[in-house]
Write a structure and sequence with these properties.
Distance between the termini: 96 Å
Oligomer: single chain
Number of domains: 4
Length: 935
């Protein structure tokens, strides 16, 4: 601030002289939190010069305050005591302390066992105040209580009500002043006592009756059966119903929920409207004649429509395996697909809700990955509501020093500055109020928000456990603790909202509904037709007919189109060279390479109206500098995608360079693909080895989702694979793991070796009316291999070949050995055989390893019925790759009486060697072994 302005301000202020300390103290408060001081003060401090902002030491301004105050003192010749003003600052500091740390003294634990350490900041003495100051009036600063001044006693009482009652709010870690002010207005405006009408209070009570009633019913009807009871966390039911109803009122059309086991059956029946009788049948072991393995009842999903004041909302509860938190990115992917389908950019039409356990959210890393994705271009969904069913014990671990290294299980949310609302689960009205606050915050600021529902677990981890063996103190208290329904009913009786008989009727009426086995959710509505139709893809097998024809004229037209970019879009010299080469490929002057054929495949699909989504850690250019679908202007960094400009009205391709994550990203793409059958959804690993980080997604979703849950998914994984001497971490995409999981036609596993093959494979995945995953072992050296090229005619006239016969002009009758192989090693074998001018060994490529193309291979084998010597050749060690998983297929394909042997690396614990000299030696040996016929 200029000296003249400061001087003028001081001259008009009563804060001159000794009261300079007041300014300094007030400035300290402002530095801690701009929202803690009144608007006039905040505006004054905001206008201070840059060197005095919070980014720098404020000593410059402090000295200026003192110097100007001293000068003013000399002019005035008097000293103002300043004592009342200093106390005013202390009051503002007290208010600020409650905003920062009041949650640590909040009454959050229904069992009253959770004792946090005393917080000195929250005492009057810490701020040099005493109860003798209670009757003195002070300015309340920005405290949103509707008054400018209040007695200290009233201020202190209100701060205790607002910040140390049933709600503990953590939001002062948020950088945005606007967001903090918004939360303060909502929290402080209620004065710690949210009010609900008698009708709404009765509705909350009925929802608690349902939550408690279902668990008691199941406990008596199926004693000892696992159900992962919600008992102790009953307020989850009114919480969810409030979220759904209010979201619909605010314009949401769909809600996607992800949760683990705890309370799932209760949510299915009392929120989504699953028929109790259907649940009882599952407990009794009854099931339909549907194909598949099925899954346990507390993993199952469900869909329904739900009536809200804003119209019906479609609900979807995601299927979830026992790897608890992995469902979170799956939900986000499903939400993003629905947003894209509805043309929603900000998340206003689709709401994601994830429900966590307190141990899991702090313990499983995919939570951090999902938070990290929440504001990125590829994965943002306009914020999510995250709920923790915090029963204060993980399985049998209740000591926090064993469960986590943070004060709260929710501290992970602070990494994205999400507000965290801790709330006592035995105060249902506080729970509902926090729910409203959380949803409105999410809708206003499009950011994640967390509700920590602090409760308890009435039984053990499951109903067969004996929890008092490991938590004796907690469960001694639990046995005496009345259920939430009883606590709330008593409160409403005291308020004359209900009487005892009315409560009894609520309980008996709900039990009668369960006895009938019919739907118990009043808001349930039968599902209407969805905006997406899966029927064209249901029941089809791999051999279903489909039309993939494309003319040479169209190929060349699109080939030229994907080579066009604005003249003022300056390319990197290497990229420009690649595009100049592609122009020749489009003209037919040069054979197509991998990057051109792949990009051309995308162009044919978007031209035909098929949307494409491709993500990966370097997918715009391609990890191996081959794709260059996203062109970066060397002048200003702007980007251009030729594939999105092949014609007016085309479908779009989205290509995103993703966050450095595998588990959450692949789970997100899985969720997207399960919600959108009409788009080609692809994920590309930087190196195929990196897919290891997503093994949970592959094992529990991708490979088995259709068998367990009947969930179709067309996700494609592009996994660079091939032995190039780059060591054990950059050679193998662990092909053997995918083949080991192959069964029931659950997916296809392909290893294409030519540009034409990848062109047809991509088109087949989208055009064939089958929605199952595609696992692709993509090449590295073949991207520029002189033999791995294709004529345009192969793209126009061909199709994907599951197996490719010998391509050289060999006389089959003279062949003494047939080598079967897959992938890059084929070109090593071909090059060496040609070098040797060898004509007695034929080489057959298996391009689709699963489902194994038995008919195509049998057709090829007709020329080699006389051959007795067959070899499987692979680059991977013997205990990896294809050999152990697929040799039974090969043996069934060769003539009777023939022998099948192995040529490849010896078995190894590591995928590859780290020394290039050793790699070359091994590679030459396996090629020699495959081609050398033993006499």
């Amino acid at each position: 601030m200029q000296d003249g302005v400061m001087q003028a301000w001081l001259e008009s202020s009563h804060l001159a002289g000794g009261n300079a300390a007041y300014i300094e103290e007030l400035f300290e408060v402002y530095l801690d939190d701009p929202t803690a001081v009144g608007e006039e003060w905040r505006k004054f401090f905001d206008e201070l010069p840059h060197e005095g902002t919070r980014d720098t030491k404020h000593s410059v301004i402090r000295d200026e305050f003192r110097e100007l105050a001293k000068n003013k003192l000399k002019q005035a010749g008097t000293v103002v005591t300043g004592a009342p003003d200093l106390k005013q600052v202390k009051v503002l500091q007290l208010i600020n302390a409650y905003r920062f740390r009041g949650h640590q003294h909040a009454k959050l634990d229904p069992l009253d066992l959770w004792k946090q350490a005393e917080v000195p900041d929250l005492s009057l003495e810490y701020h040099e105040l005493t109860k003798s100051d209670y009757d003195q009036e002070f300015n309340v600063g920005s405290l949103a209580v509707g008054k400018e001044t209040m007695k200290l006693g009233d201020i202190h009482k209100l701060l205790e009500q607002i910040y140390c009652g049933s709600i503990g709010a953590e939001y002062m870690h948020i950088v945005s002043t606007e967001e903090k002010r918004w939360i303060q207005q909502r929290l402080e405006g209620q004065l710690g006592n949210p009010e609900f009408s008698a009708d709404r209070a009765k509705q909350i009570l009925k929802e608690l009756v349902a939550a408690d009633g279902l668990e008691k019913y199941l406990g008596s009807k199926f004693p000892g059966a696992k159900r992962f009871s919600l008992e102790g966390g009953d307020s989850l039911v009114p919480l969810l119903k409030e979220l759904i109803s209010r979201s619909g009122e605010k314009g949401a059309k769909e809600v996607v929920i992800g949760m683990a086991h705890r309370g799932r059956l209760n949510v299915l029946v009392n929120v989504l409207g699953k028929k109790p009788q259907d649940l009882f049948d599952e407990f009794a072991g009854k099931h339909g004649e549907n194909k598949g393995s099925g899954d346990v009842k507390y993993h199952m999903g469900f869909s329904s429509d739900y009536a809200t004041p804003g119209g019906d909302v479609h609900l979807a509860l995601a299927f979830n395996p026992s790897h608890l938190e992995i469902v979170n990115p799956v939900v986000m992917g499903s939400v993003r697909a629905r947003m894209d389908r509805l043309g929603c950019k900000d998340g206003s039409k689709v709401l994601p809700i994830t429900i966590h356990g307190d141990a899991a959210i702090a313990g499983q890393g995919v939570v951090q990955e999902t938070f990290n994705m929440s504001k990125t271009r590829a994965y943002q969904v306009g914020g999510s509501i995250r709920i923790v069913i915090n029963n204060q014990v993980g399985f049998t671990t209740s000591k926090r020093e064993d469960a986590r290294s943070t004060q709260y299980c929710t501290d992970i949310a602070k990494m994205v500055q999400a507000p965290i609302f801790h709330v006592n689960g035995d105060d249902p009205e506080a729970v509902v109020f926090v729910t409203q606050l959380a949803l409105d915050y999410r809708n206003t600021f499009k950011r994640d928000v967390m509700i920590d529902l602090v409760c308890y677990r009435r039984h053990g981890h499951n109903e067969a456990d004996e929890p008092s063996a490991t938590q004796p103190v907690m469960y001694a208290k639990v046995k005496k603790q009345p259920v939430t329904r009883e606590i709330y009913a008593k409160r409403l009786e005291e308020r004359k909202v209900v009487d005892e008989n009315e409560v009894k009727n609520f309980v008996s009426d709900y039990r009668d509904q369960l006895d009938k086995g019919e739907i118990v959710v009043d808001e349930y509505r039968p599902m209407k037709a969805h905006s997406v139709d899966w029927s064209p893809y249901i029941g089809n097998e791999w051999d279903v007919a489909f039309d993939s024809k494309i003319s040479m004229e169209q190929i060349q037209k699109l080939g030229k189109a994907i080579c066009q970019y604005p003249k003022d879009h300056k390319l990197n010299s290497r990229v420009k060279k690649a595009y100049d080469e592609r122009v020749k490929m489009a003209e037919g002057e040069k054979k197509a390479d991998w990057g051109f054929a792949e990009t051309l495949a995308y162009a044919t699909l978007v031209d035909d109206g098929h949307r494409i989504r491709l993500t990966g850690q370097d997918s715009g250019r391609g990890t191996f500098f081959h794709r260059h679908a996203v062109l970066h202007n060397q002048k200003d960094g702007s980007t251009y995608m030729p594939v999105n400009h092949v014609r007016d009205g085309q479908a779009q391709i989205e290509i995103y360079d993703s966050v450095l994550s595998e588990a959450a990203v692949v789970a997100f793409e899985y969720g997207y693909a399960t919600a959108e059958p009409k788009a080609l959804v692809m994920w590309e690993a930087q190196f195929g080895d990196f897919v290891n980080g997503a093994q949970v997604v592959i094992d529990q979703f991708l490979s088995s989702g259709e068998q367990k849950w009947g969930r179709l998914c067309g996700l494609t994984l592009l996994l660079p694979h091939g032995y190039e001497g780059q060591g054990p971490e950059h050679s193998s995409a662990r092909l053997e793991r995918f083949l080991q999981l192959s069964a029931d036609h659950n997916w296809s596993v392909c290893v294409p070796t030519t540009p034409a093959q990848v062109f047809h494979m991509i088109r087949r995945q989208q055009l064939r009316p089958v929605r199952r995953p595609l696992i692709v072992m993509t090449p590295k050296s073949l991207l520029r291999h002189q033999l791995a090229v294709s004529d345009l005619s192969e793209l126009a006239d061909g199709e994907f070949l599951n197996a490719i016969p010998e391509i050289d002009d060999l006389d089959p009758k003279k062949v003494k050995r047939v080598v079967l192989c897959s992938g890059k090693v084929y070109f090593d074998l071909l090059t060496e055989r040609r070098k040797r001018e060898q004509t007695d060994v034929a080489i057959i490529r298996i391009e689709q390893l699963y489902p194994y193309p038995a008919e195509q291979v049998a057709d090829i084998m007709k020329d080699y019925k006389h051959v007795k010597d067959f070899v499987w050749c692979q680059e991977e060690p013997q205990n990896q790759g294809v050999w152990y998983s697929s040799q039974h297929h090969f043996r069934a394909s060769i003539p009777k009486g023939a022998e099948l042997s192995y040529a490849g690396r010896d078995a190894s614990a590591a995928p590859a060697v780290g020394y290039i000299s050793e790699h070359n030696k091994q590679q030459q040996k396996l090629v020699d072994d495959a081609l050398t016929i033993k006499r």
